[in-house]
Write a structure and sequence with these properties.
- By secondary structure, the protein is of the alpha+beta class.
- It has a single domain, classed as L,D-transpeptidase catalytic domain-like, CATH 2.40.440.10.
- The chain is built from three helices and ten strands, in the order αβββββββαββαβ.
- The chain has helices spanning about 5-20, 110-120, 155-165; strands at about 20-25, 30-35, 40-45, 50-55, 60-65, 85-95, 100-105, 125-130, 150, 170-174.
- The strands form two sheets. The chain has an eight-stranded mixed beta sheet. It has a two-stranded antiparallel ribbon with strand order 1-2.
- β4 and β5 form a beta hairpin.
- The chain is globular and about 45 Å long.
Length: about 170
């Protein structure tokens, strides 16, 4: 069977796109493997409710997100329901989270701690990118339901968890 140059190129591109994506392990679908370009930056726009996984200036993936229950403004204190704004890093992963997988964001930074301390309050912490709650709760439904985290659908956090490594820069814009 003969293939034209164009059909051969199309087949190669299609097969490389499949190889470059996320694949699930048959034994545990939560833990996917990713074989594509490194995610060099996670960009989050609170006002647009979007998150982009970037490789340099190229968008690899885009997601709709939910935020804290008081989404406007920068997180300052524990319990304020706000999602932080600024530049952080992914600093930990939790496969046994109360939510369907989670990636920790390095909030609070030194500035966040200083602002809260000056007000005599705690800055809070435990800010994550995560899926929906593992147990049925009232939270996890509707827009902007978290305590300050960034939430996506469970199948999306599986993909993000595979793609984003610890140390990846995260920028959260108002």
């Amino acid at each position: 069977m003969r293939f034209s140059r164009r059909s051969t190129l199309a087949m190669l591109l299609a097969s490389s796109a499949v190889v470059a994506g996320c694949t699930s392990s048959p034994s545990n679908s939560r833990f996917r493997r990713y074989h594509g370009p490194d995610v060099t930056h996670v960009l989050i726009s609170k006002s647009r409710r979007k998150m982009w996984l970037m490789h340099d200036t190229r968008v690899l993936k885009k997601y709709n997100i939910d935020l804290g229950f008081q989404p406007e403004g920068h997180k300052q204190f524990e319990g304020d329901g706000k999602t932080p704004e600024g530049t952080y890093t992914i600093n930990r992963r939790n496969p046994n989270s109360d939510f369907h997988l989670s990636l920790g964001i390095s909030y609070p930074n030194a500035r966040d701690v200083a602002v809260a301390k000056a007000a005599g309050k705690s800055p809070g912490g435990n800010i994550f990118i995560h899926g929906k709650p593992n147990k049925r709760k009232r939270s996890g439904t509707g827009p902007d339901w978290t305590a300050g985290c960034v939430s996506v659908k469970n199948r999306q956090i599986e993909e993000i968890y595979a793609m984003v490594k610890n140390g990846t820069k995260v920028t959260i814009h108002p």
